[in-house]
Amino acid sequence: MFRVRASCLRVGLGQVVVGLGEIPILSDYVSQRDSNRELPCEGLASVAGGIVALGKFDALHVGHRELAIQASKFGAPYLLSFVGMAEVLGWEPRAPIVAKCDRSRVLSSWAPYCGNLVPAEVQIDFSSVRHLTPQQFVEKLFKELGVSGVVAGENYRFGYKAAGDASELVRLCEKYGMGAYIISSVMDKNQDHRSMNTSDLKDKGQVSSTRVRHALAIGDMEYVSELLGRHHRLILMLKDQNELTKTSSGWKVSAPKSYLLNLPPKDGFYENCSLFFGNKDPVTCRVFIDTMHVHLETNDTDPFDYDTAQELHLMGIEFGDSRPDRD
């Protein structure tokens, strides 16, 4: 049976297939440790009859959104991804592109594209499916999740050692009476003049999480926005009120990078950023990222409503379309 994990967003489901400005509830932080709690297997029942999109869904970029859009055309859309791949395959851990506690906000912003349906998300332990053949994997989707169909990109591969491709997925889904919808990859419109310098043989110019990470690494926030279909939002966890400093014109925040819950852009100075804190309206801020710290300044005299009784506070920093002023 699949082993399912919750993330610190609303739990739904999702999967791999071939084929709005709402402010996150930063004050209701759920720790990253809590995101690894296992759910009872009954949680899978909610996906029964739905259409699942298959993928890793790290960046929740425009290609992932297109999978959700196509899934919503045939039924309730779900995203099904796998967790624990890094541990099982021995990959070096790395920061997520989207903070776990911010994923529900991003998925909610997709609703207007998905027939006003918010795609739900479910994560399955990679260790429980790693050694499955393509047929065994599709059989589990049918028997244990009870989905009515799957959506996947044309380059999607699945099963042990990626033995199955899109055509195999279609054939197996037909065998079990499920629909299989294969869609063309969403291509990176800027691939010609923005060198990736990638050795990834799967990269054929399509929008990918790898490209998002590359764009963040060079600090090209306009490029990041194009790939994501939204501005990148960095989530900072504040642990002490002393990290806030009142200035003559507003407030200053300085915190170590270890307080970040997702991947920051290249070190440098960024203007035209927006600060989200609690239920307050966003305010304009300036952000400077150095080797060890993140600093931001705002001219707003009272953007913070700091509850000292609360142990942790989350702050959202959204980057406008710009490049850093300094290397």
From TrEMBL:
Pathway assignment: Cofactor biosynthesis; FAD biosynthesis; FAD from FMN: step 1/1
The FAD synthetase domain, residue ranges: 126-192
GO-annotated biological processes: FAD biosynthetic process; riboflavin biosynthetic process
Domain of life the protein comes from: Eukaryota
GO cellular component: chloroplast
Gene Ontology molecular function: any one: FMN adenylyltransferase activity
Keyword Phosphoprotein found: no
Keywords, comma-separated and alphabetical: ATP-binding, FAD, Flavoprotein, FMN, Nucleotide-binding, Nucleotidyltransferase, Transferase
EC number of the protein: 2.7.7.2
Transmembrane segments: none
Pfam families: FAD_syn
Protein name from the UniProt record: FAD synthase
